[in-house]
TrEMBL record:
Species assigned in the record: Lentilactobacillus buchneri subsp. silagei CD034
A GO term from the CC aspect: plasma membrane
High-level lineage: Bacteria, Bacillati, Bacillota, Bacilli, Lactobacillales
Membrane topology category: Multi-pass membrane protein
Coiled-coil residue spans: none
Protein name: Bcr/CflA family efflux transporter
Pfam families: MFS_1
Residues of the Major facilitator superfamily (MFS) profile domain: 13-398
Amino acid sequence: MNTNLKLGNKIWLVFILGTISATGPLSIDLYLPALPEMTRDLSAQPSLIQLSLSACLIGLALGQLISGPLSDKYGRKKPLMIGFFIFGLVSLMIAYSSSVYLLIGLRFIQGLAGASGQVLSRAIASDMFSGPLLTKFYSMLSAVNGIFPVISPVIGGFMIRYVEWQGIFILLAVIGFVLVLALWLGIKETLPQEKRISGSPGKSIGQMFKLLKNSRFVRLVLATGLVSGGLFSYISASSFVFQNFFHMSVQNFSLLYALNGIGIAIGSVIPGALAGHFSEAGQTKVILTSTFITSVLLTLSALFLNNLLLVIILVFLTVTQFGMLFTLTTSIIMNLTLHNNGGLSAMLGLSQNAIGGVMSPLVGLMGTGTYLPMSVAIMGCMGLSLFLFSTIHNSQRSLS
């Protein structure tokens, strides 16, 4: 493990990995302010437009099952560069689509391609660090990643004022191609030949699926995925809740969404500051409990108050705790004493994106006339996550 990186090199590494791991925020948050316009322009139901969000999430989940284990065999750098080249190309194709069903299909492929950034940023970090150092590094990584949910909707909201929604996907194409160049010039291979899985590509994929034989690992990954389910329940419903139900303008919603992105970034860095003083498992149980309580209060407000200021406060507290949980659970999983970090990261990403992909249209089908479906979905995800995590021993080492 490389624990002696110079500060400048570490900052550069955090910046690059934080950017490539932001495939989700770039693919989702940037076009959130455009969802109502896309619904009208494509003459589609809100649930169908939200399905484009789910398609991307499912692509992000399944794509990690490809790039993760293949990186255990071929190294981290090549799959990253190929993934982002395809991401840029498909983004251009989306900009010229005129059918909601074509949009959904292309978004799925976009997710498949962009998945390499999410899964391999975690794998590269775990190639280089372990223990509390890994938690601290993930805190910095999540903070950089958290910048994109802040700036993406602001940029998207600004763009919608002057260009059609297609311009957002042209910007995504440019970002994809620029990242290919940045990876080529700015990242060294972190998985040496002697540490790679030998044999056919199928062997590395098989090693990944062997993880499912460990019931404790499965419960931990599902608990982590449910946190993403709660987050994407908020993401998929937020534009409809605040713009339609509370009658916010596109610009005000973008600023509010950016504020919540800041909350996620703030939450992400807290576990790093506490690493070495409190165990990751202990912190996780406390924050899962407090997040569940917050979601209960949000649900009660939907039933009895419908007060905008109260909703803003409760949502901010909820997403801030999401940021803490993502850092903590990622560190716990990636600190497991296993050798196929790419496959390990892929299973984590599968759970996060698949459950998020299921929750997004489910919230839409439950209705957009109130924020009760959003709050109930968050409460359900957090309650189940807390239950699953409570069945796991405090020591993360006992999971390996």
